[in-house]
Specification:
This protein is mainly α and 134 residues long. Helices cover 86% and strands 0% of the residues.
């Protein structure tokens, strides 16, 4: 598989997985509000968890490679923040082990994919700048 196809495959994976994660987060938020009567931390999780996919989608229209890297990096930061809120909700006994493990593992996977995209995009940008100096 060529480098370009590998890049596009990763990009499609992160698009699908970040949207699926956002949908899971919405469900988790509803559960936490309805069943646990937890509104503050769950709202933070809702914001960061749905923001991942929004930033990935926004990167579709990046104006340059640095702009793309910036938007994907923001998605990565939001994923890391989501991990934090999930940990807090779990460690305070608000989020049960089974649900926590499932959503947390999905988020860790997003972090790994986003980290890989940022790294490969930076490498590509560096390679391109050496091949086409300004």
């Amino acid at each position: 598989m060529s480098e370009n196809n590998s890049y596009h495959r990763k990009y499609n994976i992160i698009t699908d997985k970040s949207k699926a994660f956002a949908i899971r987060i919405v469900g988790c938020y509803k559960y936490l509000c309805d069943e646990k009567k937890e509104y503050i931390l769950s709202k933070q999780l809702m914001r960061s968890g749905t923001s991942i996919g929004a930033n990935v989608r926004e990167s579709f229209n990046a104006q340059s490679t640095p702009d793309f890297i910036s938007k994907i990096s923001i998605a990565l930061k939001e994923a890391e923040e989501s991990l934090y809120w999930l940990e807090i909700l779990h460690e305070t006994g608000t989020l049960e082990e089974k649900l926590f493990d499932s959503i947390y593992n999905d988020c860790v996977e997003l972090v790994k994919i986003l980290t890989s995209i940022v790294k490969s995009s930076k490498e590509k940008e560096e390679k391109d700048s050496k091949n086409y100096p300004k």
